[in-house]
Amino acid sequence: MAEPASLKVSVWRGGEQGDFARYEVPARANQTVLDVVTHIQRELDPSLAYRFACRVGMCGSCAMTVNGRARWTCRTHVRKVVGADGELELRPLANLPVIRDLAADLAPFFDKWQRAQGRFQPKDAPDGAVPEDFVVVPPASKARREADAGIECIGCAVCYASCDVVAWNPDYLGPAALNRAWTLVNDVRDGAHGDRLDAVAGDAGCHSCHSTQSCTERCPKNLDPSSAIAGLKRRLFWDTLLGRR
Amino acid sequence: MSTRGQTHLWVVQRVTAMILAVAVLVHLVTIIGAVRGGLSAAEILGRTRGNGAWFAFYAVFALSAGLHGAIGLRNMAAETIGLRGRGADIAWLAIGLVTAGFGIRAAYGLFA
């Protein structure tokens, strides 16, 4: 697509209540959306609040809503998302409180990782001490492959902002926390499977997921939280039906 | 409701869905068979009256449909209009059982 000489960028300014400000930003080759935001803050309006750290798709801190869709802005090229007339619309992530401008408050997102027991609990050392011996985990085993499929999450909250169920039910744990729980349920070294399955069950947990797969569609790391949630449902279904819990 | 109770509701909805998948098929095939050559009350009653198997089938069908529908409506009401809580849960359970009761009563009417 031919690139326009300049971009017309609408940027959300303010908190929950606010409005769009418009900026004209020079278009450049290989420009990312984060480059655009940085240009605005450094050259046009130093009061603009936004968040980033690594700039290479590792830290998960620069996610925003770009033209209506949650994306990691450091790895999103402008030419892939810009309209024909050079229009870009930037908002903070949806489904989260707005701190200011493009910075959303991720505290509720990470609180839910805790609620979903998204932390490793060594099986033979419940107090968190180092276990006495190594556990042999065959990399090709089914459980380990399930766990490996979900462990590259960078916690960017793109899935959480894209999830309809979070929008409908603010208590819903969300795709990332449930994906994390599923990796731990498949970790043979972990000793808190029962508690964790209790934590992720029910209306605020995996059972509310509609499997519409926006999380899987939009995960910048190409993870599949939707399948992880389906795995939790399957495990809880059989455990409940067979009286194992 | 406890998360364990909510999990049980989900399991009930999935199991009733499996039952309904078979029951609806049997129901449709029966309808298509029954209307061939004209439909009469005498023909229907001839098939169902005193037949324990048909009564058991329709009783299970009605119970599954009642519970499945009420659990689904409970989820939809919670997500779309925020109707949640103990009172709503009791109401949905009652609606499910009453719906199933009507169905079972109708099946019994054809059996007795």
TrEMBL record, chain A:
Gene Ontology MF terms in the entry: 2 iron, 2 sulfur cluster binding; 3 iron, 4 sulfur cluster binding; 4 iron, 4 sulfur cluster binding; electron transfer activity; metal ion binding; succinate dehydrogenase (quinone) activity
Co-factor binding details = Binds 1 [2Fe-2S] cluster.
Cofactor dependence is on: [2Fe-2S] cluster; [3Fe-4S] cluster; [4Fe-4S] cluster
Please write the reaction equations for the catalytic activity of this protein.
Answer: a quinone + succinate = fumarate + a quinol
* Documented EC number(s): 1.3.5.1
What's one Pfam family the UniProt record gives for this protein?
Fer4_17
Give the similarity note: Belongs to the succinate dehydrogenase/fumarate reductase iron-sulfur protein family.
Protein's recorded name? Succinate dehydrogenase iron-sulfur subunit
